[in-house]
Each structure stands twice: as structure tokens, then as C-alpha cells.
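Hi P.,

Sorry for the delay on this. The queue was packed all week, but I finally got your sequence through. Input first:
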Amino acid sequence: MLDINITLLIQLVNFLVTLIVLNFLLIKPIRDIVKKRRDLAAGMLTDSEDFISDAAVKLENYNAALTKAKEEAVAAREAYKNEATAKESDILEAARADAQAFLQSSREETKAAMAETLVSLEQRIPELSRLVVDQMLGKTNRSSAV
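Then the structure:
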């Protein structure tokens, strides 16, 4: 049977003292370490979630900036293309005007040369007529040939 005496009380006090010492020396430090690890893991999880959300925001900003840059490049290319087309039209119009002016001046020079030649020929009509008649009549006067 079980005897209740002073030994049981000493054993109980011994057990409680051992439990308090073990709690103070072993169990409480292990609980603190586990709690610190849990807090550290939760902090790392929060940091990683923050990093992921920041990365998503930066990626969206990058894509928006890239899209905007592409649109600006297209607009600039179109502007340069339109400017080049306008310059081309101006250059072609200037060349066309120069060609018309050259053609007009060439026509005027040709008309002037024709008029000069016509006047010269009209002045030589009597001389040329005499030469033709002389040749038809058989007179050979080659010294006054044209």
C-alpha cells in the first residue's frame, strides 16, 4: 500500500523544485528561441511579400514607361516622316520651278537665235538668189560661195 509520510512530501518538493529549475534553465529558453524563430519567419514572410508587391509595382511602372516610350518613338518617327515628305515636296517643287525657268529661258534663247538667223538669211537672200541663178545657168563663181 501507499504510505503517506514525510518522504512523499520531500519527493513532491523535490519534483516541484526540479520542475521550476528545468522550466527556468531549459523550457523557458527553448520557448524563447522558438518564439524568436517564429517571429523571424513571420518577419521574413512579410518582407518577402513586401518585396514581391514592390517588384510587381516596379514591373508595372516599367511596362508603362516602355509602352509610353514606344508610343513616343512612333510619334517621333511619324513626325520625322511627315517633315521629310514636306521637304521632299518643297525640293521637288523648287526643282520643277527651276526646270520650268530653264526651259523657258532655253525657248527664249532658241527663238532669239532663230530670229537672228532669219534676219541674217533675209539679208543674204539677194546674194543666195544670185548664186542659185548662176549655178542654174552654168556660171561657176566659186569665190563668192557661202
